Amino acid sequence: MHACLSMARLAAALSLLLLAGAAAAASRPDYVGTTEPFASDAVYFVVTDRFVNGDPGNDHRDQGGEHPTFDIPVHCADGIDGNIGYLGGDFRGLLDNAGYIRGLGFGAVWITPIVDNPDQAFTGSRPVTCSSSLTDRGKTGYHGYWGIDFYRLDEHLPSTDLDFPGLTRGLHDAGLKVVLDIVGNHGSPAWTMPVRQPQFGQLFDAQGRLVADHQNLPPQQLDPQHNPLHAFYNTIGPVDGEKGSIFDGNLAELSDFNQHNPAVMDYLVGAYLQWTAQGVDALRIDTIGWLPHPWWHAFVQRIRAAHPGMFMFGEAFDYDAARIAEHTWPANANVSVLDFPLRGALSAVFGREGQGYEALAGPLHLEGGPYANPYALMTFYDNHDMARLDASDSGFIDAHNWLFTARGIPVLYYGSETGFMRGRGEHAGNRAYFGQDRIAAAPRSPIFAPLQRIARLREATPALQRGLQVNERLQGDQAVFYRVLQHGRTAQTALVLLNKGDTAQAFEVRRYLQAGTWRDALDGGTQVVRDVLKATLPAHGVKVFVLDAEVRQPALQARLDAAMADQAARDARLAR
């Protein structure tokens, strides 16, 4: 009897404590950069064909006839060649290495488009050279962006025992979300062929029926009024770069979809709903900047009607923040974007140019910026469409220390954990084959372990994933900033110290510093702080101190209150 009463009293006391904790959490101010669930997951980006060949049985090495598709080298004068043919990477190779990606500290993997591409190398356009761009003669659709049947898997990707749902299930079992790359702007190359080739400039529906055909005609010669097979495509001819975008109907001879034809929207939405139903967690939208805002708004709404809240981010290859920010606004696409303006600054700071940290302050747009929310942007320093980061090993380490502690959702291009093909452009090895042997050797790279260490720290530290950022200093080789998350039951402040210099440096932090016991999240131990925190960082080092407590420091509170007010004002403005 007495024991029962004791247990009842204990339960009542615990309930009161929980209620008191919830009440306290409800009464304190909210400090949060983003509540987007996907912000917890750093993203590893693979060009699937160039990652690992897990199943040679789907290589199709004899495909293409007189225009073969497998292993087409592009010779460079320095002896490091590129390649514009298929090289064998597939779903099996990706799934076999899911543990490798997860073990690095990533929570999601972004894969290039999976839809069917032409079965020959393209004979039109201008010749590909080591340094060329937007040239496609002799190139294949190994990258996936030349869709001809958006309802069918490209035959180079699955195995007899591994289809796309099997891949997504396997990646999920390994703890990885799946980001699918999609294209809404264009299909395959469509004209300039000396002799018309099958599939190029054509489009097939879910039943395999031909629904569109460019017929090797330039856009301005298409006649959609009299030929229904032309109705899927725009008829805009070459555009003077000074008068419009080169992407208006003239992007490397690609078949440019007609955004005014409702059948185009229906076709693409139907195709992508087919794939998203098979285990896709998020979408990366290719060339979002070259279709109008109303089109993307409608497209996104239709996808999210089936998948409420699905995270999406677009590629607008533009270094003007005001322009790419428009895609993030609720009235437009209402998606995140790849942060190209910050990317340009990251290259200047961590690449051979070696600018100081002050170059990063402006592109962060922490307050008063054009984005719907800068904390939900995808941050990166290179990708498959530009030269890889040209940096020393230390430069890569410094870049990763920043990328996984500062605002935004980090994206890393495959091989960057070893500095793979650093400085190389698209046709000069940027998309070179990585392979199982390089994965086995990757932990021996001096870049690998520091990346793994900081990526795992972000994964374990909510403030680094979604907390507001308050800069204490961004100057020269030193960066000091806070990431603060006070939301729900979480109250956490991370203090980040970065040294990108070649010698050890002593840091003293006083501004915005709250008294308390701060734990050293990377190296262990604690530091009891009253009015100053001191630390010595080795060359190219990082320290992260974490305080699990409500914010009470007046100057820091004022900065955080201002940031939240700025976000509220931005939300209200964009809602109008």
TrEMBL record:
Cofactor(s) demanded: Ca(2+)
Leader peptide range in chain numbering: 1-25
Residue intervals of the Glycosyl hydrolase family 13 catalytic domain: 45-458
Coiled-coil region(s): none
Keyword Transferase: yes
Transmembrane segments: none
CDD domains in the cross-refs: AmyAc_bac_CMD_like_2
GO biological process, one term: carbohydrate metabolic process
Domain of life: Bacteria
SUPFAM superfamilies recorded: (Trans)glycosidases, Glycosyl hydrolase domain
GO molecular function, a single term: metal ion binding
Keywords from the UniProt entry: Metal-binding, Signal, Transferase
Record Pfam families: Alpha-amylase
Protein name (database record): Cyclomaltodextrin glucanotransferase
Originating organism: Stenotrophomonas acidaminiphila
Gene encoding the protein: amyM
